[in-house]
Design brief:
- Chain B: This is Spore gernimation protein.
- Chain B: Keywords: Germination, Membrane, Transmembrane, Transmembrane helix, Transport.
- Chain B: It comes from Sporolactobacillus inulinus CASD.
- Chain B: It is found in: Membrane.
- The complex is a heterodimer.
- Chain A is an alpha/beta fold.
- Helix content of chain A is about 30%, strand content about 30%.
- By secondary structure, chain B is mainly α.
- Classes of the chains: A alpha/beta, B mainly alpha.
């Protein structure tokens, strides 16, 4: 046996050496972290890729190993191509090293692109084994190219990471979670439509600017910032959102929800106007209140007002979706789940007639540390 | 040939747990969700349970066959065939069942290469990879049954982390997707069951290994535990896949398991999917080893003159040739379809018939004796 092993070991070594494959060593590739796509019209897009730039701080200990750390690598590339083209392939001719999408964290589309439809882009990402599925997508109000290539941000970290951190952070607060994963879930799934956050550049920083609601792959409606809480409340359970309620002109209270969950019930799912019942439970703290407007004793009264107000807002929101015939809340999916022999073919016609009932139950747990 | 296996060459009864388990769980684990949910959408988990129950039933048939045979000599399929049907027909039947083992090996190896091609190294040479792979297999099989059983145990241990990875998708799962429960016709469920056959196949290889397992009474228990574990494993994976993907998305995804590995992210380790795929090599090694060992034994059984260590080389060369000839993904798919059909034919139809034949033979023998 030993002899045999001694015989085959060099043979294996020989084969392994001859079987060398192209590698992607992290120092020798350009890691694309963000892609931005601006629609130019007529099937043409302006694509931008952004790479991190590990430069600028001279490293005394770098010696002579490989790249001098002070050398600057390419930071971004942009150019015109057709919709659905893999940007990495498009820009390889101008890359000093192989471009790789293995760490792609962010894809941005400008509003024109989103309005035109993202199906080619989503198909590209769905087909690609290299790009991760948990990257963030966002619609940009303005130009993606400008956003990714500007050098006037306050922060020094690469813009791709800046934007992604911002989106991820906000999806723990008011904004619903949205990644490539959730987008594909809703895009390919039946009886639902996807949504993405909208971001825009404001001077030297970037901000969230509401939600872009899609019909299929096309952006059709913007949900403004102050409706996002209501949307998320109906969409998933969450905590740490902040809801601002103007109970009288110029008098606000702000709730920070400790925990919110939502339950759906459906009746007559196969009739021409199904009844959808949403019951939302909000447990909240008061973060800020108009002086004198709330205390432990006036809490219950405020709760009732809030219940009514939030339920009304929710119903209005759903009516707006029904008029646009979009279903970002995945109500169709809820109806399907609670209906035997669900009639999916006629659902698009029935959806606008569905009756949406919402019951909100707010519990104010704390009103703060002062009376 | 028909002398008993020496205890020194036998493996412990717990091997009856690891061997079928490792044979069953493999590349099919990456993609079975899509094919099954095509017919019975959210109720596919039910099909998985039914299919699992059927596999338990067939396992009973397998063990029954082997136990009935023990009194006549070697309890394995080759001896059963030749005893019941005579030397000539028995050899043909041996060829018939061993072809399935050959298909099993080539399909495992080729599917693994396909996964590596798609996800990790598109440029990898099929020939070189299968050559190195078969060298490893040759080295292991030369060590005999005990080494193969050891590799099965190792494989089981190495694959445990993969099943834990699945837990990361639980927070993203929408269990509402499983509703409404049982909303499909029995026909649709049966179709799904049939499509599931290929993931449960593999336990029937006990038919060849059984004489090498000591303490059969214990071994039988372990075999059933193994089959139950597989049912649990596949059913939970399926439930999670249904909850995590929307139906449309699932139909669009060829390798759902890898797709959700793709969305697992750790601060330091990116691309768990690639690590997991490389780890899956360990699901393929024991399969190829055991299959080549079985075929070599079949050769030895038919032509006792040929020594196993020589036939083994030819068999592995055959694996390499078979693997290299299947060039495109489409052919791999067709191979898998053929394998599923063949396997379903063997376990669901052929084995029960064989048990029946064995029973008839016993009746006849008894009436002839009296």
């Amino acid at each position: 046996m030993k002899q045999k092993a001694a015989l085959i070991a060099p043979l294996i070594a020989l084969l392994l050496l001859s079987g060398c494959l192209p590698t992607s060593i992290i120092d020798d590739v350009l890691l694309v972290e963000a892609e931005g796509i601006d629609y130019l019209g007529d099937g043409k897009v302006m694509g931008t890729v952004s790479m991190p730039n590990y430069a600028a701080n001279p490293n005394p200990g770098s010696g002579g190993a490989g790249l001098p750390t002070t050398a600057s690598m390419l930071r971004h590339l942009s150019g015109v191509t057709y919709d659905g083209k893999s940007l990495v392939d498009r820009f390889q001719p101008s890359g000093q090293m192989p471009l790789r999408v293995g760490k792609l964290r962010l894809m941005l589309f400008n509003t024109a692109m989103a309005k035109k439809g993202l199906y080619k882009q989503i198909d590209l990402r769905n087909r690609d084994p290299d790009a991760p599925r948990d990257m963030s997508l966002a619609v940009v109000e303005g130009s993606c190219r400008k956003m990714l290539t500007s050098a006037d941000y306050q922060t020094q970290i690469p813009v791709a990471r800046y934007i992604q951190d911002m989106i991820e952070q906000n999806s723990e607060h008011n904004y619903p979670e949205s990644t490539l994963e959730t987008f594909m879930y809703a895009y390919y799934g039946d009886y639902m439509d996807p949504f993405l956050p909208i971001i825009r550049k404001q001077g030297d920083h970037i901000e969230m600017y509401g939600l872009a609601l899609f019909k299929g792959d096309k952006y059709v409606m913007r949900l403004s910032e102050n409706r996002v809480f209501t949307f998320k409340m109906l969409f998933q359970k969450f905590s740490q959102g902040v809801y601002d309620y103007e109970f009288a002109p110029n008098k606000h209270i702000a709730l920070k929800n400790v925990h919110t969950n939502v339950n759906y019930k459906v009746k007559n799912g196969n009739s021409s106007s199904p009844d959808i019942y949403a019951s939302v439970n909000v447990r909240a703290q008061i973060r800020q209140a108009n002086p004198g407007s709330i205390s432990k004793s006036t809490g219950p009264g405020m709760e009732k007002k809030l219940n009514k107000h939030m339920a009304k807002e929710a119903v209005q929101l759903v009516h707006r979706f029904q008029r646009k015939r979009i279903d970002p809340l995945q109500l169709g999916q809820h109806v399907r789940s609670y209906t035997r022999n669900f009639d999916g073919k006629s659902w698009p016609e029935r959806y606008p007639n569905a009756r949406f009932h919402c019951k909100v139950d707010v519990t104010i747990r704390q009103t703060g540390i002062s009376e | 040939m028909n002398d008993k296996i020496k205890p020194a060459h036998q493996v412990g009864p717990v091997s009856a747990f690891f061997i079928p388990q490792v044979m069953q769980i493999g590349i099919g684990y990456l993609s079975f969700q899509q094919i099954i949910t095509k017919y019975s959408q959210q109720d596919a988990w039910l099909a998985s349970l039914i299919s699992g129950a059927l596999s338990l039933g067939i396992l009973w048939v397998v063990l029954r066959l082997l136990e009935n045979e023990r009194q006549f000599g070697m309890p394995d399929l080759f001896s059963i065939h030749t005893r019941i049907f005579g030397r000539r027909i028995g050899t043909i039947l041996n060829l018939f069942t061993v072809t399935h083992v050959l298909l099993f090996a080539i399909r495992s190896l080729r599917s693994y290469i396909e996964i590596v091609h798609v996800w990790v190294f598109p440029q990898m040479s099929m020939f070189l990879f299968s050559l190195i792979f078969c060298l490893i297999a040759w080295y292991i099989v030369s060590g005999g049954m005990r080494t193969i059983a050891g590799v099965c145990l190792l494989s089981f241990i190495y694959l445990v982390p993969l099943s834990i990875l699945t837990l990361f998708i639980v927070p993203h799962a929408q269990f509402e997707n499983l509703l409404p429960l049982i909303d499909h016709s029995p026909a649709a469920l049966l179709k799904s069951c049939y499509e599931l056959t290929h993931v449960y196949l593999g336990f029937e290889l006990l038919l060849y290994v059984y004489p090498f397992i000591s303490n059969p009474r214990e071994a039988r228990k372990w075999a059933f535990r193994s089959a139950l574990t597989t049912v649990y494993f596949y059913t939970t994976t399926l439930i999670l896949a249904i909850a995590y993907f929307s139906q449309g998305e699932l139909q669009n995804t060829i390798w759902p398991t890898v797709a959700y590995w793709k969305s697992v992210r750790f601060p330091l380790v990116e691309h768990i999917d690639i690590i997991a795929i490389v780890l899956l090599l360990w699901a393929t090694i024991p399969k190829v080893c055991l299959c080549s060992w079985i075929i070599a034994r079949a050769v030895k059984f038919t032509v006792p003159k040929i020594k196993m260590k020589y036939s083994l080389i030819v068999i592995l060369a055959l694996f390499i040739a078979g693997t290299t000839m299947i060039r495109t993904g489409l052919l791999v798919k067709q191979l898998n379809v053929a394998y599923t059909r063949y396997g379903a034919l063997i376990i669901y139809i052929y084995l029960p018939i064989l048990l029946f034949c064995q029973w008839i033979k016993k009746k006849r023998g008894r009436s002839a004796a009296s």
